[in-house]
Amino acid sequence: MPVLTSLHIKPLTTAIGSEILGVDVNQLDAETFEVIRETYNDRGVIFFRDQHVDSDQFIAFARRFGPLTSSKFNPKVDGYTELAEVRKEETDTKNIGGGWHTDQAFRDVPVMGTMLVARELPDLGGDTMWLNMALAFDALSEGLKQTLRGMRAVHSNAHVFGVKAAPDEIAARRGMVNLDEASNEATHPVVGRHPENGREVLYVNPTYTTHFDGWTVAESEPLLRFLYMHITRPEFACRFHWEEGSIAFWDNRQCLHYALNDYHGEKRLMHRLMVEGPPLQ
Ligand code: SIN
Asked: Domain of 137: which CATH number?
C-alpha cells in the first residue's frame, strides 16, 4: 500500500506546528516525503510519534532534508560526528535550551533545521515550545515593520556559554565541550524572507541577540525587550509533549524554541541533528 494513503496531518495550533500521523519515517516514498517537506516549510515545526529509529535510521531520515552539520560544543553520541546529546541529569538544575532561541544564530549561515528524537524522558514535564516568528512579525504595526526592515542585529554565543558567560552557567552545562572556544559572532538582517514560503520573518532572540548593529547594547535593550514581549504572546506558540518514539523537526529560520525545565530530579536525554539549507533572504 502506498504510504501516502495513510498520511494524516494534524495541526497543533492555528499558529504553528503539525503532527504527521500514519507514517514510518524509515519507509517514506518520494511523494510522501515531499508532502512532509511542504508541511515543514509551511508549519515551521513537524512532529512524529511512535517512531522506532536507531541512530543510523535517525541520521538517514534527517539527511533527506539536507546535509548535516554539528556544534562543537555539544557532546556527541559515541561513534558519531553529527549526532549530539541534549542531556539533563537528575542532579542538574539547568537544562540546555531553557530560553527562547533559534539554533546557531551566531553562525554566518545559521543551521536551517534541527531534529530531535526523545531517548529518555521524565515521567512528567520536559515539553518543548515553539513560536512562529512570521506571524509575530505580521502582527506588528506597519511603522515598526518598516523600521525593522532596515536594521541588522548582532548574535553571539560568548555570553551564553563562552568565555563571557557566568561561571555557574558554564557549570550548569556540564557535558558541553570546547566552551572556551565559544566566541562566535554574526550579524543578520532583523527581518528576512523565508526562502521556501516567502513570508517575512522577525529574526532576533533573547538568548543570542546582543544588540542592533550600529546601536549600543543600552540603546538596543528597550526595543528588544518590547519585541520579546510581543513574540512570546501565546497565540504565536505551540507546545509539544514528548513520548517514547517522538521526533520533532523545526525550521530555525522561522521559529524560536524553548525547552521547559520543569522536571528536576529526573533525567531527560534527547539526540539531536542539525540540517543545513538556504538561509533567510
Ligand atoms: C534545544 O534547544 O536544542 C533543545 C530542545 C529540547 O531539548 O527540547
From this structure: 3.60.130.10
